[in-house]
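Project outcomes to date are best conveyed with an example. Our students and postdoctoral researchers have been running inverse folding experiments weekly, and each run begins with a structure described purely in tokens. The record below, which covers 444 residues, was selected by the lab manager from last quarter's runs and is presented without edits.
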């Protein structure tokens, strides 16, 4: 996704947040004392069940659902994000203060129970530890959306050729795929660098709005339908990133070939890396453990939802194929320059997906800076970027971006394609594979 600037958290908020951490640190033990009832909110006890949440961005509101329940000595929760349900890893509640934490993304919601309603903020952590804050409110038991048979007005369903206008004056071609049930709208944008997650929203006359919050990104899209065109489109990510966009209906539109955008530069015969893992041990492609193995290298980051999608797929695939000669290494480009802080984030990421392969601390989460650490590549265009190396050390393919589950059939096709190609590479004996050509470019 495009780079974004982010504001720093005001000093006063940091002091308040630090105090809240101390207060909420004992929440689990106290939070499980009383059973919620119809008058629970007035007594300061958080009601279980469905909460309708709104997160306010400069360009409009994100609608989401939060399902709260009891578990052990405290609360458990999940986030309802369109057609997706996301477990919330940290739930703490004490004295009317609620923390919903997404530690693998290093983001959180903090809210206070006021008159039966939760009021607070979503805090997103960005590059170099800078934060963005957005107002958050949630109402217990309120419906997430209006009836699906409500009059919709325009028809937004189908496949659209989309143009996002970049701040530098360039354009970024993408694809919008939407389905519509009455006034309810679902779908996503497919971008050459990845997808924009599970989106949901409403159509109102000729206008529509789509949004998402999945624990990582906070997105709002809107636009106006004019026949087979979408005009006056706006895209907000968090509090600062804003783009305009437009689209035309085109059922045959395609993205650029994901295997043709990243390659080894002329003169480079192989891909190389050498970085420390989260325990401080340096790991290199020249290590004996990788000799004669099929190696998949992914450029990733814990802040990146598409990287989470890839890890959710790759972690079990590695366990299935490691005995057959597969190795996987993730080069992690984090928001934090401090190595200890970055390592903690990587450990959280490993724990979330039960990752058994190496995850190395490769640098900061800037594509330009990442490219400087990997001089053999023509560029780093996306996180993730996935490099496939055969048993003889030859780069066979490089895939830019990743289409996650929010893209439906595209995710199914990509994961099947990757699995089939790894099967093919594992079936090749190292001594029968041709040497790298003089230009060092990837390819079969």
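After processing, the design step wrote out the following sequence:
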């Amino acid at each position: 996704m495009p780079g974004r600037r982010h504001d720093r958290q005001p000093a006063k908020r940091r002091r308040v947040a630090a105090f809240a951490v101390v207060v909420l640190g004992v929440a689990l033990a106290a939070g499980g004392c009383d059973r919620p009832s119809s008058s629970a909110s007035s007594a300061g006890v958080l009601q279980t069940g469905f909460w309708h949440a709104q997160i306010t961005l400069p360009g409009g509101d994100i609608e989401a659902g939060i399902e709260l329940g009891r578990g052990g000595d405290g609360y458990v929760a999940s986030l309802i994000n369109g057609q997706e349900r996301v477990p919330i890893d940290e739930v703490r509640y004490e004295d009317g203060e609620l923390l919903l934490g997404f530690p693998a993304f290093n983001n959180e919601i903090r809210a206070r129970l006021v008159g039966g309603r939760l009021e607070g903020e979503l805090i997103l952590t960005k590059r170099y530890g800078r934060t963005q804050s957005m107002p958050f409110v949630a109402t217990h038991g309120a419906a997430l959306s209006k009836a699906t048979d409500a009059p919709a007005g325009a028809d937004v369903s189908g496949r659209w050729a989309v143009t996002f206008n970049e701040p530098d004056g360039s354009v970024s071609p993408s694809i919008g795929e939407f389905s519509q049930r009455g006034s309810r709208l679902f779908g996503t944008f497919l971008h050459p660098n990845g997808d924009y997650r599970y989106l949901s929203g409403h159509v109102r006359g000729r206008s529509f709005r789509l949004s998402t919050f999945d624990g990582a990104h906070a997105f709002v899209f809107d636009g106006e339908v004019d026949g087979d065109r979408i005009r006056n489109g706006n895209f907000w990510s968090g509090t600062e990133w804003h783009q305009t966009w437009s689209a035309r209906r085109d059922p045959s539109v395609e993205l650029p070939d994901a295997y043709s955008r990243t390659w080894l530069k002329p003169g480079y015969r192989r891909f190389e890396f050498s970085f420390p893992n989260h325990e401080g041990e340096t790991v290199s492609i020249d290590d004996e453990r990788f000799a004669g193995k099929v190696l998949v290298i992914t450029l990733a980051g814990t802040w990146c939802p598409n990287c989470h999608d890839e890890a959710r797929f790759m972690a079990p695939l590695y366990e299935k194929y490691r005995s057959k000669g597969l190795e996987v290494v993730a080069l992690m480009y984090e928001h934090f320059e401090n190595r200890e802080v970055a390592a903690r984030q990587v450990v959280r990421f490993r724990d979330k997906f039960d990752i058994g392969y190496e995850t190395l601390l490769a640098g900061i989460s800037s594509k330009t800076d990442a490219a400087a650490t990997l001089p053999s590549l023509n560029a780093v265009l996306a996180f993730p970027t996935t490099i496939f190396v055969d048993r003889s050390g030859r780069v066979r393919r490089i895939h830019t971006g990743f289409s996650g589950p929010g893209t439906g059939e595209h995710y199914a096709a990509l994961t099947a394609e990757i699995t089939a190609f790894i099967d093919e590479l594992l079936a090749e004996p190292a001594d029968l594979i041709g040497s790298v050509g003089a230009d060092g470019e990837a390819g079969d």
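The helical segments are 11-24, 27-31, 305-321, 339-353, 367-373, 409-427. The two ends are 29 Å apart (CA to CA). The training component of this project remains on track.
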